[in-house]
Amino acid sequence: MNKCLILAFALAAYNVTQAREIKGLIAVENDTTALPGVLCRLYSGDMLVQKSVSDHSGAFTIATEKNEEVILRFSLAGFSETEILIAPGTKNLDLGQILLTESINLDELTVTSKSQYNVRGRTIVYPASSDIKASSTAIRLFEKLPLPGLETNVINRTLSVDGATPMILVNGVPSSISDLNSIPPADIEKVEFSRITPARYADRGCSGFLSVTVRRRTDGGSFYGWTRGCPTTGFLDADIKASYHHGESQFSLSYNPSWRNYQDVYDVTEQSFVGNDCKVNLIEKDRNPFNYLMNPISFKYNFTPNKSTLFSATLNAAISSSKRRYTGTTIDTQIGEYNTLMLAQSAQFSPSLDLFFRHDFNDRNTLEIQAVGTLSSDDYRRDNEYVYDAESIEEYIMNVDNRRRSLITEANFTHSFNDATSLSAGYQNTVSHSRNQYISSDYAPVLTENNNYIYARLGYQFNKVYVSLSSGLKMFWVKNDLNKRSFIRNISQAQASWTINNKWSLQAAFRYSPSIPGISSLTDHPQQTSPYLVSNGNPNLKVSEYYNYQLSGSYTHKKLSTTLMLSCLNTRNPATTDLRYLGNGLFLSQSMNYDTFRRSSGNLYVKLNDIAGFGASLNISLEHYNTKLKTEWAHSLTAISGSLSLWWNKGPVTISYWRKLPGKYLSGQVVGKNENGDMLQVEYRPNKHWGIGASWMYMFETRGTQYPSWNYSAINPSIKDRYIKDNANMVVFSASYSADFGSIFRSGRRTLNNSDTGSSLLKM
Pairing state of beta strands 633-650 and 653-661? Predict the structure, then answer.
């Protein structure tokens, strides 16, 4: 029988003579119906020590004198066998509600390991207890899971697939990376992952799909708090989440502040501006301290009157501010040496109300409806000063206030014809009204947006092969005082997955996705930012069209997981920021389209799990880039990148090491190198509530975080060396606390999520 692993930890005072009683209630996962007749067996190692059967109400009780670690197994025909690991102790233990999952049709599911499955083109993983014990945060847990293609950055606490953030769902509710960071690792029961973005989310700029199932409560509540900071550097992060559940109602609050205050930030740039009648060579040495504070907070209410209906209301408030101050000197071949000063500050406030409704008509038909209203403000101030002498100062000022109102509505309907075939379709509309008040010029353009997206997806399971086809039509209109643009584009993808046996599987996918320019990129309002440079949007910018081909093969056996992935990305009308000469010593910087962008890559992922407490994962990529603009320029680049994770857990102590292997990338005529990073961490968790840790980040890096880049443009060739010295050899301390009470339950699912992150403001 297929087994899914659920972990429950119970800590109690140790006494070798006292017996204990273990009890709970067993129910069906889908609708929490009581399950009588479930065989409950208690094992010490491989030895059966006690057994019982659940009664008519699903209740069971087992008495035992065994005080060491034991395993409780639940079995019933038609349901997957479930295991609960119980830590040593003597106190009586109430496990609350235990949910059994109905067995999945073997044509749909093929077991690839004890805790890893391939289902309809997606990888499903039940985190092992060893991985949970060795992880202090959700990001540290994802670092250890066999999810090839999902990149983790444990320093920045981010996830990415092919360079973009995946679509994230938590208990079926689309969520942010902040929401994910707020989940204690022990609460994560199941993870579902795919590198292919579902059709309904294909127009949102995300890449890949990540669905996380966490345990919830019917009554009572829970609290989770985590923080980290550095005593010598302005570096502080925190995650706070509290929830209370009572009957049909669920209330929750989450707060995820992040603060940085970096002083030792440096830029060294050598660049030229080359025109028909002029050439300027610049050597710039700047110190660029910056700080920011982000305060995302959300209040959520869920109402579930029955098993088939869910209503949710969420009030979000994204509050943030940032400041930058550039000071330095410039050696100019035309003017000589002069000082530079740049001051920039921004303040954003974006409250939104999210209303969601879901109804399951029956096992095969589901309707979801969502409406999101957003009011946002963004006040931006920038002042560039060029001091040639005490009496000669040139100043370039940008003061603009942005106000935006938007309403996003979406409806989605899903129908399952049978166990092998399903169809989903939906419609999404976004209308917005934006006003940019340029204070220095009294220019106040009004921009309106109407964005429509219609989509459908068909999936079919044939024996061990799963095939899905999806297509959508995106219709986008935007206008301001001077211009009006419209775009109509298709979004399509195809996917095939073949689970050969319990060790081998193959996947192939094709995706066509256009990238429609954002409102800010289309805004036509030039702003001079330096003596030689004018920046502006481009109303004539074309849609970039991406053709992505992927092929992957996976092998999983016992403690080894490995995957080889091959992919090729071709782009029509790729966009990049470039310069052209206007005359009179001025150059225009704006987004422009060029002819060719091609990236071919091979990726190897290997993971070894729980060998005497040790675990390791390695991710290596080989990438080749080609870019071209007619006969004007052509560039190519081959680069290696990846990441390495090592960890060891012994009792309450975990030692881990993560290192990013930064590679180079090519965009247009610019070659850049990805951010470097490594971290050695020691963590101590004396009980199920508390955890403390210390990390050594950017080890032996005297310059800290580094961001070198090279521009091979004939008009603006440059070499830039940017580094944040504050990060060098940084020691960070962390602490966490979690507590909960009440019975476990499965909440209503939600798969629609929309939020307005658009802006008509082009910051320069």
Answer: antiparallel
Residues in Cβ contact with 306 at an 8 Å cutoff, skipping those fewer than 6 apart: none
Domain end call among 103, 132, 147? 103
CA atoms within 13 A on the CB side of 136: 31
Put the strands of the sheet holding 20-28 in their side by side order: 59-64, 20-28, 93-100
> 118 lies in a domain?
no
- Residue 307: inside a domain: yes
Phi, psi (deg, nearest 5) at residue 66: -75, 120
Gap between the Cα atoms of 457 and 468, Å rounded:
7
pLDDT 10s digits, 326-342: 899 999 998 899 999 99
| pLDDT exceeds 80 at position 394 | yes
Average pLDDT over residues 406-417: 92
Burial annotation 237-271 (CB, 10 A radius, 16+ → b, else e): bbbbbebbbeeeebebebbbbbebebebbbbebeb
Q: Are 669 and 712 in contact (CB under 8 A)?
A: yes
Question: For residue 756, which amino acid is it?
Answer: D
Domain boundary among 49, 81, 103: 103
Task: Give the pLDDT band of residue 528 (cuts 50, 70, 90).
Answer: confident
HEC states along 131-145? HHHCCCCHHHHHHHC
The phi and psi torsions of 301 (rounded to 5 degrees) equal -130, 125
Strands 81-86 and 3-5 turn out to be: parallel
378 near 398, Cβ under 8 Å?
no
368 SS3 class: strand
Total structural domains within the chain: 2
How far apart, in whole angstroms, are the C-alpha atoms of residue 493 and residue 513?
Answer: 8
pLDDT grade for 30, boundaries at 50, 70 and 90: low
Quick check: is 175 in a domain?
no
What CATH number is given to the structural domain containing 52?
A: 2.60.40.10
**What is the value of pTM for the model shown?**
0.78
pLDDT on residue 7: 37
Report whether 158 contacts 177 (CB < 8 A).
yes
Structural domain for 38, as ranges:
1-103
Q: Output the domain CATH number for residue 409.
A: 2.40.170.20
Distance in angstroms (rounded) separating the CA atoms of residues 388 and 679: 44
In a domain, 573, yes or no: yes
Check if the beta carbon of residue 466 is closer than 8 Å to that of residue 460: yes
* pLDDT per residue as tens digits for the range 42-74: 887 767 888 888 887 788 999 888 777 788 888
Whether pLDDT at 171 is above 80? no
- H helices of 261-413, in order, are none
Low-confidence winner among 131-135, 289-293, 546-550, 588-592 (lowest mean pLDDT): 131-135
Task: Give me 740's structure tokens.
Answer: 């909960």
Residues 96 and 234 in one domain: no
Per-residue pLDDT reduced to its tens digit, 93-110: 888 888 887 654 433 344
Asked whether 364 and 415 are in contact (CB, 8 A), the reply is yes
